[in-house]
Write a structure and sequence with these properties.
Order of helices and strands: EHEHHEH
Protein name: General stress protein
Structural class: alpha+beta
Keywords: Membrane, Transmembrane, Transmembrane helix
Strand order of the largest sheet: 1-3-2
Number of helices: 4
Domain General stress protein 17M-like: 28-110
Organism: Amycolatopsis halotolerans
Transmembrane segments: 76-98, 104-127
Helix content: 40-55%
Shape: elongated
Largest sheet: 3 strands, antiparallel
């Protein structure tokens, strides 16, 4: 997977534009889920189709935020302590590997304790400053209303024919 930067210029890997560029091509299929569009492109690849001519485009984008649970001081502090502990263990590990004073275990424990304390402090400050405006945790996803499969004109007709064959296949049996 290539991630492009809006600051780079010219052409990226395999001739892909590095700047945000609208997609080009003719529609050869439209699907309600990304999984269906991905399955269509997989089918094209299995059929020896030139998939470098294909683009999946999400249309009618939505930001979906799913509420996971209610936040409380206990949950906030526990999450802060855990994230701080991981960072502290990592820092203690680096100190133990590169600094020969005090022993490896002592440096690892020092990093852990300082990480937990800083994680607690930062999470408490962040939660306190929100003043109850957001007392829930959530996960966000960018989803599309539909997913169009576009193809360059030189091979669009062949792509349409292959996807028509895919549409005529019986659905797989549920296991």
């Amino acid at each position: 997977m290539m991630v492009s930067s809006p600051f780079g210029g010219g052409q990226g890997q395999a001739g892909l534009p590095r700047l945000p560029t609208p997609p080009t091509g003719w529609p050869i299929g439209s699907y309600t889920t990304y999984g269906e569009a991905q399955q269509a492109v997989d089918f094209l690849a299995e059929s020896e189709f030139a998939v470098t001519d294909v683009t999946i485009v999400g249309v009618d984008l939505m930001l979906v935020e799913r509420v996971i649970g209610r936040l409380s001081w206990g949950r906030v502090l526990a999450a802060g302590a855990m994230s701080g502990a991981w960072f502290g263990l990592f820092a203690g590990l680096l100190l133990g590997m590169f600094v020969n004073q005090g022993g490896f275990t002592l440096q690892l424990l020092t990093g852990l304790v300082l990480g937990v304390l800083s994680g607690l402090a930062f999470s408490a400050i962040g939660y306190r400053t929100s003043r109850g405006r957001r007392d829930f945790s959530s996960a966000s996803q960018l989803v599309a209303g539909r997913y169009d499969v576009l193809c360059q004109p030189r091979s669009a007709e062949q792509g349409r024919e292959l996807l028509a064959k895919l549409a005529l296949r019986p659905p797989p049996l549920a296991s």
